Amino acid sequence: MDQPRVNQSDNMKNRPKRITVSPITRSSGQLSIQAIVKQGRVVNARVIGGVYRGYETIMVGRDPFDAAYLTEKICGICSTAHAMVSSLMLEQIYLTEVPPNGRLLRNLMLGAEFLQNHLRHFYFLELPDYLKAPPNFPFFNPTGRDYRFTKEENDVLWSHYQEAVSASRMCHDMLTLFGGKVPHPHGLVPGGSTVGPRADTLNKFAAKLAAVQQFIETRLLPDTHLLADTYPDYFKIGQGPGNFLSYGGFLNSKGQYAIPPGVIIQERKQTLDIRQITKTTKYTWLSKQQTSEGISQPEERKQPEPYKPGAYTWLEASRYANEPMEVGPLARAIIRGQTFGSSTMDRVLARSYEADLIGRLMSQWLGEIEPEKLAYRPPDKQIAKQAFGALEVPRGSLLHRIRVESNQVAHYQIITPSEWNFSPRDDFDKLGPVEQCLIGIPIEDPKIPIEVGRVARSFDPCLYCATHIIQL
Amino acid sequence: MLNAVGPNLNQILQGLIDLRFQNTLMWAEDNEAWTILDRTVEDPNGFLLIIEGAISTLSQGKLCIVAVKDNTIITGSQLIIRIAPRARYVMAVGTCACFGGPTAAKPNPSKSVGVGEFLQRTVINVSGCPAHPDWIIGTLAHLLLFGEPEVDQYGRPIIFYGETVHRRCTRRSFFDQRIFAKKLGDPECMFELGCKGPLTHADCPERQWNSYLNWPVKANTPCIGCTESTYPDGMEPFFKPPFPLDD
Q1: Which residues pair with A264 in a beta bridge?
Q2: Does A287 contact B at CB distance below 8 Å?
């Protein structure tokens, strides 16, 4: 980070102060944030993604059909997302006709994964930034925070935190009925769903979905509104770059998306063009420093370079038309035409509203299923050498790309949602979305900079995903 | 743990264990979280260390940065070297922590290894990708109530990993009669479609997953051998039989 310029005549209070928030707990994976605070505001920030595994190198040389099961293993929190996107990708490589039931059941599985993610994020990862736990829970009691709920409100929210354990588990139970197990389901494959829609299974699914929808209506939505009403200043804190991206989510029978694709750059709507996606690595601990490369071109292998001068993260800088893009529920809502700002609390609201929307879409898909009819058709002969799959998943836009040679994976690439949101500065020194969000936020007490975590968590960070799979 | 049924997460935290540090669920963050870790490690009553994920060893573990303190990077491997010797028990949870798993799959770009290999000491391995919540909580309960569980040659508690999936498989009668599924989604034996049940030690067929509703073979797909030390490299291709059958 740039060294702060210290004006000797400033008093101590006004001197720029470097803070490091580490670890940012209640996120998946290892996340730290460094910031410079001047006169009570953040003036500079950088996001440190702490993990690298090189999954894309691991994929090379394997049977392409192993992609759905193996790329799932990247992350336990949204494994279904990787199974779904790699399946869509392989269906471009091998001649496949997914039966209507297969499409619907896969939508239901991915929908259940959305609900599980959104419920767990709100109650277990986000709410603790604002809620006080009872004193007999040592694991739950940090000190000195900006608590504003009344005792009654706090008691109710704490009881809902506990109820969310079973409500979110029920989402995984729904997914398991067709997936076999979660995390890392088996039932969602190229060609459809391996479990067919029998009346008893559908009925179990419907009962669980109804219970989860009731939880969303009577707990999640009112609790989200209470949080937003109690912390209205967070509608001004954590404003992003104003650029939003969506690949489109959940396919219907006409091949259209239930959640529309699109791009908004500085309030201007554009048509999505995947070829506009680039990645740069000036600030990433990876070799190969300059060229930004589109996803339509073959990529060179990149190697870990942990001592690279100037680098500060394992994440690469993903850009669309050279712009940092926010992805996730808020981006999808804005692209869908809903009215939102781009703040911490806008993200919280958009995520809860999306859980409600997806619950209702799932009821609809359930009604479209033809019981006892085919849900899976095996992929046939190879018809292409390379393909990509791109879809909206809980945290945002997910892309898998493959090249197949001699029935083996010759090249694999994955760009995850958190690689967009938590990306570092690019080769032109333009800050990543979360870095931009942090600039200007107030820091009440630099010793306990709770504001930083609140802003970062509104993006539902999953750094396993993002950093485990930076391409080599 | 969030998917655990009986006891569920609330019961586990209130009744079974005094959980101090867990990155995803703990409410504290930043320095406060780190202080909790330090204090627990110094606690004269001792502690149990549960490790998820493989240990990456390339460049002193910088491929896994767990925290940045005083402008210094603290890596996962450094942290484990510091705290593991003081732990009364070390439990590795998930196949990556036990044996390297998918993280250490060929060509192992992060030079990752399992916890036991890294520490060169005996650890209790609760393998699986993921490990079943019952296997984790059950092993914990065994440690707390009866001491160390009996383990197999890979350090896995035999109460969960004592038999192969194949031995207890609900489709075993199809296998015995050589009636094989032709494609995923079929109701017969999954051997010809790649099932690694004969090589895989776990109680999935009896226990089942997620509120005991289903498991991969019941979902008409093959077992992929996720509890074994050779997983995933030794289990791939996932959809090819593990060995030829000679009748």
Answers
A1: A244, A269
A2: no
pLDDT tens by residue, A8-58: 444 566 789 999 999 999 998 899 999 999 999 999 999 999 988 888 899
Q: Which one of B161, B180, B209 terminates a domain?
A: B161
Is A139 an interface residue toward B (CB < 8 Å)?
Answer: yes
Predicted confidence (pLDDT) at residue A464 exceeds the cutoff of 70: no
Exposure string over A447-463, b if 16+ CB within 10 A, otherwise e: ebbbbbbbbbbbbbbbb
Rounded mean pLDDT of A406-425? Answer: 95
The total number of residues written for chain A in this structure: 472
Residue B61 lies in domain: 9-161
Q: Do the Cβ atoms of B109 and A304 come within 8 Å?
A: yes
List C-alpha distances in Å: A114 to A174, A194, A256, A358, B192.
Answer: 12, 20, 19, 8, 34
Domain count within chain B: 2
Q: What is the pLDDT of residues A271-317, one digit of tens each?
A: 999 999 998 899 999 986 444 455 545 555 678 899 999 999 999 99
Q: What is the CATH number of the domain that holds B170?
A: 4.10.480.10
A100 touches chain B (CB under 8 A): no
Average pLDDT over residues B143-162: 96
Using a CB-CB cut-off of 8 Å, the residues of chain A touching B5 are 169
Q: Which CATH superfamily is domain A12-468 in?
A: Cytochrome-c3 Hydrogenase, chain B (1.10.645.10)
Q: How far is A359 from chain B (nearest CA, A)?
A: 20
Residue A470 clears pLDDT 50, i.e. is over it: no
**CATH code of the domain covering residue B32:** 3.40.50.700
Does B118 reside within a domain? Answer: yes
Whether B144 and B219 map to the same domain: the answer is no
Q: Which residue has the tokens 């219907």?
A: A252
From B3, B18, B27, residue closest to A128, measured CB to CB: B27
How much is the pLDDT for A254?
Answer: 87
Instruction: Verify whether the Cβ–Cβ distance B185 to A186 is below 8 Å.
Output: no
B138 and B61 share one domain: yes
- Same domain? For B168 and B157 the reply is no
Out of B109, B216, B226, closest to residue A57 by CB: B109
Cβ neighbours of A378 in B, within 8 Å: 183-184
For residue B184, give the nearest of A28, A141, A194 by CB distance: A194
